[in-house]
Amino acid sequence: MTELKCNYINGLWQPTEGAAENRSPANPDDLIGLYARGTAADVVKAIEAAQAAQLGWAAASPQLRSNVLRRAGDLLLAKVEEMGRLLAREEGKTLAEAKGEALRAAQLFHFYAGEALRNPGEKLASLRDSVEAEVTREPLGVVGLITPWNFPIAIPAWKTAPALAAGNAVILKPADQTPACAHLLAQILAEAGCPAGVFNLVMGRGSEIGAALVNHPGVAAISFTGSERVGRGIALDCARGMKKVQLEMGGKNPMIVTAQADLDLAVAACLNGAFFSTGQRCTASSRLIVEAPVHDAFVEKLAAAMTALRVGDPLDPATQIGPVVSEGQLAGNLDYVRIAADEGCEVLGGQRLNRPGSFQSPALFLGARNSMRVAQEEIFGPCAAVIAVADFEEAVAVANDTQFGLSSGICTGSLREATEFRRRSKAGMVMVNLPTAGVDYHVPFGGRGASSLGGREQGRMAMDFYTAVKTAYTFAG
After folding, report:
1. Cα(140)–Cα(163) distance, rounded to whole angstroms?
2. C-alpha to C-alpha distance for 172 and 182, rounded to whole angstroms
3. Which of 56, 211, 256, 455 has the fewest Cβ atoms within 10 Å of its own Cβ atom?
4. Where in the sequence is the active site (predicted)?
5. E strand intervals along 312-433
6. What is the Cα–Cα distance from 30 to 90, expressed in whole angstroms?
7. Structure confidence by residue, pLDDT tens digits, 309-324
8. Residue 293: which domain range?
9. What is the per-residue pLDDT across 203-217, written as a single tens digit (0 to 9) for each?
10. Same domain, 145 and 198
11. What total number of domains does the chain contain?
12. pTM over 0.70
């Protein structure tokens, strides 16, 4: 009989009435585990536990918080192989990518172990005689973290670590499709000595668990990564509840290839950005905007490289692209392949592969126009639209013609074009001669427009969201 993986509330593994099977998208016969499917009542228990524990955690020495985060990072580092295999089975990333993500989670905890010791403030001379002014940062209280399935350990890490470093108590609600990595993170934090109630894990459906977190008055802030549609609803609910909110949502990221580009470098960057991680990244290069003089040569090279990509078992070291995360996601991807053809694109690839599991060949939509649905709506799969433009000016205009603004890129050998694009791109992150996907943990992550709302994630700037600013005046006369 398969053991039930329980929610983690107030330092205890607590069962609930519901449960769900977690199966690999690469092999439906691979049962990863049976995971608790919590209820709104479980959320209330977690909030009450977090409220009771948070004051002591906030009052504790910064060194204590740092030590817990450092130990968690050490434990994650020791479990990179285990976590990587679990992640590859659960989400479908290749084993190499999965191990890299597990390593990133460890690095994030180590980084924020340092930030726990650095809580800078300011002491300023007041404009009034004999008055001192001091600006400090304090924790918010209880924060709810709602994370997606595409980075099932990295995103929980980059939300949880700064929240704990700042002195908050946390309730983590992972994606329903990928609970296993979050469950292992809860085990690691418990082993690292995180006090009971400071970190809580409640697994289950977003419609119930997420809604309960967002609408409970005991939760001071919500950090959400997921779809734009769900994010907009969370923003409205948080506004009604006067909660602090941070949203990371969709992207329709452009990669410009100019006539000055090294085509081999451009193909490598676009291949990585569009298709690796099965295209299941909010920073994926989903619009390839190519200047006319190099369009045909670029498409020929990219199509050949795409066709040569090996799609298969994520645990096979030779695999370059694993499965789509679920049958539902695959069905949506295949709908967009049909839409691309209906809109007039020439479609290369994109078929469901004839093998067990949710496998799809990568796809290029040639002859796309930026007004098409496949060039404006986030697909979140291994699909990229190729848009031909006359020159650099048109390329920049097309790149910015989207509701999203997360990541953008340019491949060019011209310093002038690179500098101009960095200045004029309406995106939160700009890449030059690099894939649009792939970021460092010590600098801010986030976008503009419909991609992001609220404070930035990662780096020191992440601490801004998880703290409240207090200005204190003291009469010293």
Report:
1. 9
2. 8
3. 56
4. 248
5. 346-349, 363-366, 383-389, 404-405, 407-411, 429-432
6. 9
7. 999 999 999 999 999 9
8. 253-432
9. 999 999 999 999 999
10. yes
11. 2
12. yes
